From TrEMBL:
<dbReference type="InterPro" id="IPR036513">
    <property type="entry name" value="STAS_dom_sf"/>
</dbReference>
<feature type="domain" description="STAS">
    <location>
        <begin position="37"/>
        <end position="124"/>
    </location>
</feature>
<dbReference type="Pfam" id="PF13466">
    <property type="entry name" value="STAS_2"/>
</dbReference>
<feature type="region of interest" description="Disordered">
    <location>
        <begin position="1"/>
        <end position="35"/>
    </location>
</feature>
<protein>
    <submittedName>
        <fullName>Sulphate transporter/antisigma-factor antagonist</fullName>
    </submittedName>
</protein>
<dbReference type="InterPro" id="IPR002645">
    <property type="entry name" value="STAS_dom"/>
</dbReference>
<dbReference type="InterPro" id="IPR058548">
    <property type="entry name" value="MlaB-like_STAS"/>
</dbReference>
Length: 124
C-alpha cells in the first residue's frame, strides 16, 4: 500500500514530474565533499532502481556526506522505506554518511512507527 502526502498550496504545474537526480551545484553550502540527490515525487518500488542508480552515481564521487533530499516526495510505500535503509547501509560500507533531509511528515511518522528512524539520520 502506498501513502500519499498532501501537496502544498498551488500544487504542481501540469507535466511537471520531479524525478531522482544528482544535484551538481558547484558551491555546496552543505559542507565539504557533500553530494546531494533529490529523490523526486515517488519513493516507491517502481522507482527504486532509478533512485538507486542516481545514488550509485553520487557515491562514485566518494563524498563524505550524501544528502538524500526527500522534500518532493508525495508518494511512498514499504519498498521505498526499505530502499532508504539499503542506501544507508551501502553508503556506510563506503564510509559515507547518508543524511535524509526534508522528508514529509507522513514519511517521518512511518519511520518512527517502524523504528527505521533509529537507523537513519533524518533532518528537517
Amino acid at each position: 500500500m502506498a501513502v500519499t502526502c498532501p501537496v502544498g498550496p498551488g500544487g504542481r504545474p501540469t507535466g511537471a514530474e520531479p524525478v531522482p537526480r544528482l544535484l551538481t551545484d558547484p558551491v555546496d553550502a552543505s559542507g565539504p565533499r557533500t553530494s546531494q540527490v533529490t529523490v523526486g515525487r515517488q519513493l516507491v518500488a517502481g522507482r527504486a532502481a532509478e533512485i538507486h542508480s542516481v545514488v550509485d552515481e553520487a557515491l562514485r564521487t566518494d563524498p563524505a556526506v550524501l544528502r538524500l533530499r526527500l522534500h518532493e516526495v508525495e508518494l511512498f510505500d514499504a519498498a521505498g522505506v526499505g530502499l532508504l535503509l539499503r542506501l544507508q547501509a551501502q553508503a556506510r560500507r563506503q564510509g559515507t554518511d547518508l543524511v535524509c533531509s526534508g522528508p514529509p511528515r507522513r514519511l517521518v511518522a512511518v519511520l518512527h512507527r517502524t523504528g527505521a528512524v533509529h537507523l537513519l539520520t533524518v533532518v528537517a
